[in-house]
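User: Fold this, then the next.

Assistant: Folding the first:
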Amino acid sequence: MIKLAIIDNAIDHSIYNPIRHWKICLENDFVVFKATSCQFPDIQDFTHIILTGSEASILHREKWVYDEIELVKEAAERGVALLGSCYGHQLLAVALAGPHYVQKCANPEIGWISISINRVDDFLGDKRSAYCFSSHLDEVTEMPDEFLVFASSDSCQVQGFRLRNQPIWGLQIHPEMNINEAQWYLEKRVENKHEPLHLFQAAMNSQPRDSRLILQVVKNFVG
């Protein structure tokens, strides 16, 4: 039986509320743990863990981040299924590959972007292009051989990876954010004049495009 935990890495739910996004997508019951309050699951109580995005930068790590890194290492050793989105994807890379595999973006991706699924994979399926919402200023760089990179974009070479032979996936995109939720998020970012403001404004005024990858993500992670 699947026992699912979600580690909420958000700072301010009035701007970004990943639990609301995942709740819309998931049929499974789950238990929420607030990372910034140093609340983390007991690994032996769960079979699956989702690591959410965050307004924080993975390059500036507070104590709770180091605690979460240690939890991820233990979960991987115990064979727990892990899925990280955006910040969670970057945290998986830091924990399981090393901190030098994350860096500041040369070209931040904010808005609805096109990604290339460039390998046939059980997680996202056949090779193709797809659209999804993205919002990140940091990124994962080229990964070591024990990681299979299966998706990329023009500005980010590691949009999706899997730790070979283990149920551990990272996605730089936000498949869990539907169009309405993403537009609300962009409006809050612009309203609060968050930088890079011009990119949030441009995304808010752009045409939304969503290939609904979340349906495949949820099916293959907890289906």
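Now the next one, as you asked:
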Amino acid sequence: MTLIKSSDLVQSLTDALQYISYYHPPDFIRALHRAWEREAAPAARDAMAQILVNSRLCAEGHRPICQDTGIVVVFLDLGTGVRFEPGTDVEALVNEAVHRAYTLPDNPLRASIVADPDGARRNTGDNTPAVIHVRLVPGDRLDVHVAAKGGGSENKSRFAILNPSDSVADWVVDQLPGMGAGWCPPGILGIGIGGTAEKALLLAKEALMEPIDIHELRERGPRTHAEALRLEILDRVNRLGIGAQGLGGLTTVLDVKIREYPTHAASKPVGLIPNCAATRHVHFQLDGSGPADLAPPSLDLWPRIEWGTDEAARRVDLERLTREDIAQWRPGDRLLLSGRLLTGRDAAHKRIVELLERGEPLPAGLDFRDRFIYYVGPVDPVGDEVIGPAGPTTASRMDRYTEAMLARTGLLGMIGKAERGPEAIASIRHHGAVYLIATGGAAYLVARAIRAARVVAFEDLGMEAVYEFEVADMPVTVAVDSRGASIHEQGPAEWRIKIEQITRL
């Protein structure tokens, strides 16, 4: 029997969670670099460049790739020849590792987990508990797959029970436009087919842990139905023209991973889960000889891409900006913002709107008149940082609050990621406001533009507190202009036509 020491499991998981916070898997970097080299859409190519540059900065600086450091998912394949010390509580050990990893002073990770999910939604403070799956397998080793799954991509998961004769490829392709860009493409699609409802989704999640190998598969050709299906879905999804960050382009997904399981003759359960551009996972094995040794990847893996502020971008002084100024902006315009802006996410918006509806004043310092709000929940700073990684969160979650914010606070505009819904766009048009986007998956790079930060309201909300940021040349793109025109509608539509023309040649 192989004895696995509790301390070895805790140390290995702690190290693994820190490791994946700042190291992309090498296969992802290679795949994204290939996509960047062939991308013809300027906006999408620039977004990929930011993600690649951000990834290298994080690898060098050991800081999180994305401010959303995820919900921890751990798969434990426990060999039947493995034993633990008497009285061991494996679940408690996993959560101890999460606690240590997320509160490490040298690289604190954002606590995003809330308890009482349909009630108070109180932040647990250390990102516990993890989601843990244990399976008994033959052998005398403990195999561990650990992932940190961001909310933006997890929220875009889909499930259906198809008829046996239905096409899985048709269903997946039908889902992608409705998923929008909140899952931060380009990424990977995990698909589970078969079993029961919960099994299909579990298969999809497990599929995301597999290496990216679609280029090798295409070169040798498919040998099974599942492999042929992977290629079909990849090609059809990329022909949709959604592109990086939903801006329109050649690459929406880098790979499609499929796992299958036998199912009832009357059923075809299908689960679909995307991994974003901050895909984070690693595998290690414990054999009783001590904690896992996770060797850092060579920095030579990362391409040397020169990225700097766009000289053609319009410099914007937030302290002097007027509604007449923003009326001149159009979708796709590149801007460099300097000055002060406020932040806020779901919980802060809920409180603000409740105060407005009760006719109560907002907290001191929370004056939105002629200002911008940035949808962000940053990571805590370390060393001489003024703030940790601070990339945008999915803007559509704030759509329900947009009319109240624009009508009752004097807000000029919003900054987030991905598309806005029809009601939010109508409100933006009605009030002559604008919506800008920063690149999702480039949180450390974005944070470099933040020169000062202070909490101004709702400190008890933790990472959802309202900050005031002072920024210098913060790179953003106009996504919805004051007339209601949206780049997330225009970009993919334009590139869908271009891709059709290319494939006909």
